[in-house]
Amino acid sequence: MKKQLAYLCIIVSLLSAVLFYNGTTNADTPVVNNAEQTYQLTKKAMFYLRVLKSDGTASATGTGVILSPGGTAATAYHVVKGAQRMEGIMADGTIISPIKVSNYDEQKDLAVLDLPTPAAAKQADNAYPYLEIRTEAVKHGEAVFALGYPLKNTNIITEGIINTPAAEINGRSRILTSAQVVSGMSGGPLMDAHGRLAGIISGSLRTMDNIHLIINMDDLRSILPAAMK
């Protein structure tokens, strides 16, 4: 009888250890998203960006990415260079205006934008949807997704890999990706498979077909408000 009880205790202990191990592994394993899931996670936290002339027509367009619930956003500097008036159009059609440039770095091709307060923009729960910024560097061959607005009412997603996490282009370090980029996507997000912002779209590399330029997160953090670094 004592031997049976001892065996039973051992079995219970082993089962408990297995259950605990599985629970810990599942909790620590990051979720991997496909393109459809990435689009759903990202679409509400980006917007179609219009730089306006005095007559209200657009002189330039691109994409903006929201980085905080309060309305800090980012885009590529070349989209907003010299802008006097800007507005954004969210995925649900909400127009957000005015938008102002609060900081920029022309060499890095980055601009930080201040959106209207969430209340003024009539955002649910008085907060903007926003993207988590990735902290670690991307890796060769890693799956990524590029998103943006090539047209006013049309946001798109493309899928590719990281060709290299660091290439020197015109004196700047750039991520290179095979995720397709077209006009209007500048300033949009490059997302990793775990739902985090891994880069800001800058443009295309003319010397290589289907290879595109992405601004890394270290460059973005360098011009963000101190509280977000």
Write up what this structure looks like.
The chain folds into 3 domains: 1-27; 42-126, Thrombin, subunit H (Beta Barrel); 132-228, Thrombin, subunit H, CATH 2.40.10.10. The radius of gyration is 22 Å and the shape is globular. The chain has 4 helices and 14 strands. A 7-stranded antiparallel sheet has the order 5-4-1-2-3-7-6. Mean pLDDT is 89; it is low at 8-12 and 14-26. It has 229 residues and is of the alpha+beta class. A hairpin with a 2-residue loop joins strand 10 and strand 11 (172-177).
Oligomer: single chain
CA radius of gyration:
22 Å
Which architecture name of the largest domain does CATH use? Beta Barrel
Number of strands: 14
Q: Give the helix proportion (percent range).
A: 10-25%
CATH class of the largest domain: Mainly Beta
**What is the general shape?**
globular
Lateral strand order in the biggest sheet: 5-4-1-2-3-7-6
Order of SSEs? HHEEEHEEEEEEEEEEEH
The number of helical runs is 4
Report the end-to-end length measured between terminal Cα atoms: 64 Å
CATH topology of the largest domain: Thrombin, subunit H
Question: How many discrete structural domains?
Answer: 3
Structural class: alpha+beta
Largest sheet: 7 strands, antiparallel
* Low confidence ranges: 8-12, 14-26
Task: Give the amount of beta strand, in percent.
Answer: 35-45%
Question: Overall pLDDT, averaged?
Answer: 89
